[in-house]
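To whoever is covering the structure queue this week,

Two jobs came back overnight. Logging them here so there's a record in the thread.

Job A:
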Amino acid sequence: MKKRGLAVLLAASMGASLAACGSSGVGSGPAAATSGNSGTDSVGKASTEAESNAGETSGVEAGPEKFADTQHLVIAFPTFTGAPADLPMVQDEINKILLDKYNIDVDIQISDSGSYTQNVTLALSGGEQIDVLSTLFVGYTNLVNQGYLIDLEADGLLDKYGQGIVDAIGQEYIDMCRVGGTLYGITNTRDYAVGRGCIAVGTEYLEGIGYQFPNDGEEIIKITDEELEGIMAKLHEKYPNMEVYRPANNDLIQQTEIDQVGGNNFGVLVDYGTELKIQNLFTSEDYKEFCKRVYDWNQKGYISKDAATDTTSVGSLMRDGVILTYGTSGKPGSKVQESLGDGRDMTIFQTKDNYMASSNVAAYPWTIPHTTGNKEAAMTLMRALYTDADLANLFIYGIEGVHYEVDDEGLIDTSKGTSAGNYGTLPWLYPNQFLSTPLTGNDPDLWNQIREFNDSSKKSAAAGFAFDSTPVANELAACTNIYNEYQKQLEYGFLDPEAGLQEVNDKLMAAGLQKIMDEKQSQLDAWSANK
């Protein structure tokens, strides 16, 4: 990736960090979302303005383009820090578009990541209105199993009122969100695949050790494990008073070839999920080698002694000059993303392949809860979010000239504007981020690059499989407690894996690990047969 625009970006990294971390303000939460916002029960007579061509060509009668009666809807989603200060201002602009095109107005309810799950759970269990809901942090299959989500295809709902959504996402990825064959949620456009084995390193530190950068202009530099080890050793020698590497809880996924089937480590697929055979992670060579590597790094002094207890983010540690490297995920745009978040130019190395795991696509779909005031209007709102380009930049970045400006290349600079810093959401969470404008410093063709990245990456043979953990809920809880006891000791390099792996495996097997693995295999076999 060229360094074009990075100097400007890094000088104003806090503006862009809104996109990753939200902005100041207290999240109001879905639990308080419904006061004065009860939806109508009837769809209302369609206006004569337009009739959907998509509905005609699919053989399904199209729903109304615009409702006769104003539909008052609630949309709930999280950011890391809650509702931005200028949300009311942005919501007013969003509603001008929605009212004009669809006769819908929306109450946008944003919670911080720490309270979102509780707020959503209280709202749904109390029957409070939420019409469109992000399942990030809450758990998609968890909401399905509790009966909180409606079937999006029942009575032709998606076909009649969601025209264009399938085209925006692709049928293959739509189908990966099915649970038991039923579609309860729709994924958002983003990087479904992940570049495994990626390490982010401060570029200035690489220059300090005399690293010779390749001249191919590639954003991510492919190297071998041996080359990475050499870089780490030189960094430690040059900067002995800095922490070479800071482990993180998601390193297991980022730095190995395993597939966490069902979103947990109790029965996994190895070798990029090429074979539908559930295996024991804790006796696998992949996990053993992973633990041995970080243990070796710890013994060499690369990892801080308080790494397992320090909760400071790697971005903050990098920004403050505490660490030299950390694990990350690779994708188009990752260099700019990490550089913005860290406040300094970063170089991304990659030692493994690009991979789409079984649950990546359906990790946090957008849904319509059973507490919706009007499912037809809710689906129409979802259609707008997936297909209406006028809404994308507003929802994600705010108002042009106020919360961002467009640079000379037509890209968005969130560091500029009369109220820059007072609005921002999570761009990658928006239903169709590909309708928006990329941030300054990225390639203008970023979204096409990500599409190609997704399509060309290795894919798990279990892609689209959803695990129902209900039959093994007790065993899963017991195993989770044991794993949490050992996880940082093993995966941050504080416990010798030669002894530690056997100890944790013995406890897990006694707690029911084999039963969980057998249940996963049984469900996976049934899913594969029906597929």
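Job B:
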Amino acid sequence: MVLERIQSPEDIKALSTEQLETLAQEIRTFLVEKISHTGGHLASNLGVVELTIALYLAFDLPKDKVVWDVGHQSYVHKILSGRRDLFCELRQYGGLSGFPKRKESPYDSFDTGHSSTSISAGLGLAQGRDLLGEDYSVVSIIGDGALTGGMAYEALNNAARMKRNFIIVLNDNNMSISENVGGMSSYLNGLRTGDGYNDLKKNVVGALERIPGGQQMINRIKRTKNGIKQLFIPGMLFENMGITYLGPVDGHDIRKVQRALLEAKRLDHAVLVHVLTKKGKGYAPAERNPSKFHGVDPFDIATGKPLQKKEHPSYTDVFSRALCRLAQKDEKIVAVTAAMPDGTGLKAFAKEFPDRFFDVGIAEAHAVTSAAGMAAAGLKPVVAVYSSFLQRGYDQILHDVCIQELPVLFAVDRAGLVGSDGETHQGIFDYSYLTCIPNMTVMAPKNRWELEDMLAFGLKLGRPAAIRYPRGEAYRGLKEYRQPIEYGKGELLIDHSGKGAKIALLAVGSMVSTAEHICEKLEKRGILCSLANGRFVKPFDRELADYLAGTHSLVVTLEENVLQGGFGRAVASYIYEGHPGTKVYQVGLPDTYVEHGNVSVLRESLGIDSDSIIKKMGEKGFF
């Protein structure tokens, strides 16, 4: 096998064109086999095989720096940089990350995980290179879907001022996670079919090179800002910004991409190489449904179907069905997503209410402010977004939604530990960053039924609110507790204060089920605990806190969020002020970023599973 001969980046440069094509096929087979066992991002990596090989041919890594936007398509890069043998533990606890990590390898020049950042990061590296008088190439790779993010244009605007080489590779597969939307997608469609200019350029250059003084004429044409290209591809955005445009290039022809990169390398300013690729290439199920194979769990290679069947609905499924039911009765309800209709459960809403569904592309800040505008116009917008991606619209939540007290409801999916995607995707900060904003209400359901009730309640609230729920199967326990939701009120599920219980557990969201299991396990050891569901993280139920603190000697708060600025800190501060004789023990996540790994493994390692909490409470002498 050719792949087995690649032990370092230099090995690839000795291969013939035929061997390179064989290598590409072997890499695709390797990716499908490994990801079918570990899960991970498949379609995007299948699409960049030849592009990555060409990068390794054209540049000298790790001296030269390559920045991958988002970074989930860096698997081929990891294979070629000597990490192939680590793929058996891809995205596993303590194993290979699914994203670039500087601490993992010198070939990873910048940590990435969210979209639209690579041009900014690469520009910073290039500026550092120039100021320090160093000599190396910087290449930022960005997808066409990521160009819907405003940060990319901020970076392009500044890149145009570069006086030394800086290369941007536009990996254009006509997809983000789901199919691309908006004006930039339409613009790039025009570029993809704009062959007239490139054909003419080749003919003109070829003719001029054959006559005396022809090279000087070629250089003069290249320096003309609004030259021939403008005639054949109207509105050449990149050229008009001062960034040389090369392409489009067939992204699955290694030598063509290599030549384009080498041509870009010779320029003394910013240049964009437009590369056309096919997401999922080489694996039929992923080619047919690239969105489905963007991020996958372990699957059967022959059929492409997941190995583990989903027996019960996830919180996302519950949200999806409940929102559609409510929207059938209220025509003012609209839904907004940032390129995640599948992941957030809005695909069903989009199908049933297409005129009331808005996919803004990878543009979370715009999603939030446009939703604020809809609310100001009298609609009831629901913004469905992953917790870690909502961070990208924080300023807009604070300034555009909450200052005006506009009734925007945030459905915050993938909150808490999400597992294998690691630090950039763990949704463990939203309690902290949302509860410090005036006029914001934050809720967290204990089970699937409470999520349904909170959604209905939130849409009637008439003010900014967020409902925060985790990834995975919706909890079906505690079904018998379905008290109507009152603003700012929690619920007392188990009250053993009259039976001598000294410990009260006050949990929110996903940690209510953990607290329930703690109660059950301690009761078997003869230790009774009371149990309360906070429901509201902000405003938390002060009357409930007073009752628990007044009838128990210890209140244990439980949350799947960092302790700093979280639910427990607020409750503890309140109880210590009003009930100085009552102890408060806060269970939550430490002030750190959490690595990738299985959620159950992470919970145990971080000490927030029921057994670890019980052990810690015993060590502290609480029973």
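Note for Job B: Residues 33 and 301 are 7 Å apart (CA to CA).

Please reply-all if you pick these up so we don't duplicate work.
Q.
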